[in-house]
Amino acid sequence: MTLSSQREETIAAIATAVSAGQGGIAVVRISGPSAEDIGKSVVSIPGAQTWESHSVLYGHVTDLGNNERIDEVLVLIMKAPRSFTGEDVIEIHCHGGLISVRRVLERVLLHPNARRALPGEFSQRAVLNGRLELTQAEAISDLIAARSRKAAQLAMAGVDGGIQRRITSLRETLLDQLSEIEARVDFEDELPCLDEKQLLKTILKVQIELKELINDANRGECLRQGLKVAIVGRPNVGKSSLLNRLSKRERAIVTELPGTTRDLLESEIVLEGVPITLLDTAGIRRTKDKIEQLGINKSHHALLAADVVILVFDISTGWTQGDTELLDQIPTDTAKLVVGNKIDLPIQDLPYSYKEKLKEIMPDAIFSAQTGEGETVLIEKLLEKCGANETQSLVIALNERQTDLASQAILALEKTQEVSDQKLPWDFWTIDLRQAITTLGEITGEEITEAVLDRIFSRFCIGK
């Protein structure tokens, strides 16, 4: 089925989050040429009411078979082109929860001209109808998925057109250069010579700006996806206490007995705009307890999969061979933070070798999970390891698809330098410039196929 034939159909879906006992209202969105007819057949409106655009009507959704009232609703009417999709849109606002909204949608889908919307199909129609640019639609998806205020701010910059304007400006610069070159190809004898050095300088400037955008995107990725921080250490060094302290709640059971944590515990926190999933792991030690062994195996997996590892050791008893073995297990390319816990306890008399080892290790932070002493420094050090200090200046950030295309554009532009070095005719310059222009057009949606659009919007949630 082609996009044009799909757009002739009327689609419907639940446009709000659905959860038992949560949310006062829920919204069923209908978009397409039959939206108003479907709304009139589904909702009984008392009295003689006019279905005017941008008006709200009160009524009830009734069962098709026995006229039983399903829910009391408000109907919002938005006629083309003044709607999110640019088509006729009807929104039925019913009570939240699970049952009512699903029954309302089922009632809508009984209409012969209605079908269930595909993931992201409302946004896709908004782009196809010129209501949104492609980068704006993608930014709306990021806004919905944002897990922190900073991530939401970055997404909103995309919704406001920041990414679109930046990429369009770079693309137009390349289009200007391409037109100058093509003019020389067609009318070389009638036009003054093109300044090759200036041309290369302009292309290099575009490359530099694209590389800056890619660097910003890499820094902003942690704001979108969040980071996994694994807390590892020997039994009873205070891993669970550290988790509870950072989470500001009693997420893990804490006792003086070693081996209390038998499984991975997760806690979601946000530090300086960066969503972080803390993983409290089972204390890694040799044990014959099969259940504890399962937890320790999960700890090893978490250690390998984490973006940052916090290695906790008991500073009151000193660094041990077990701590060294754990440190050696952390992948060399994984950021790590060595934390000495229990500074509230008196330092025990340590063997000389352990004292020297402690000096050699130089913990990144010393801390008391019991009293909170050293917590501020610990958080600062963790944010440094997470790269949070590099995200505060971000204004816009490309998503993964856009970043890949920007990288492809850079590769195409780099080839122009090779063409110049080989003293090839202007025709050869146009090949790589066109490739870069086309690739940037895929970012903005000016050069894109139906298959690519389908793939992009299939990642969106249903109802968006």
What features would you describe in this structure?
By secondary structure, the chain is of the alpha/beta class. The protein folds into three domains: 3-133, Gyrase A, domain 2 (2-Layer Sandwich); 152-222 and 399-444, Four Helix Bundle (Hemerythrin (Met), subunit A) (Up-down Bundle), CATH 1.20.120; 226-390, P-loop containing nucleotide triphosphate hydrolases (Rossmann fold, 3-Layer(aba) Sandwich). The protein contains 16 helices and 13 strands. A seven-stranded mixed sheet has the order 3-4-5-6-2-1-7, with helices on one face. Helix 7 runs antiparallel to helix 15 (426-444) and helix 14 (400-421) runs antiparallel to helix 15. It is flat.
Please summarize what this structure is:
The chain contains 16 helices and 13 strands.
Question: What's the arrangement of secondary structure elements?
Answer:
Layout: H1 3-7, E1 10-14, E2 25-31, H2 35-42, E3 43-44, E4 55-62, E5 69-78, E6 89-95, H3 99-109, E7 114-116, H4 121-128, H5 134-145, H6 149-159, H7 162-187, H8 196-225, E8 227-233, H9 239-247, E9 265-271, E10 274-280, H10 290-305, E11 308-314, H11 321-329, E12 335-341, H12 352-361, E13 365-366, H13 375-386, H14 400-421, H15 426-444, H16 450-457
Parallel strand pairs: 1-7, 8-10, 8-11, 11-12, 12-13
Antiparallel strand pairs: 1-2, 2-6, 3-4, 4-5, 5-6, 9-10
Helix pairs in contact: 5-6, 7-8, 7-15, 8-14, 14-15
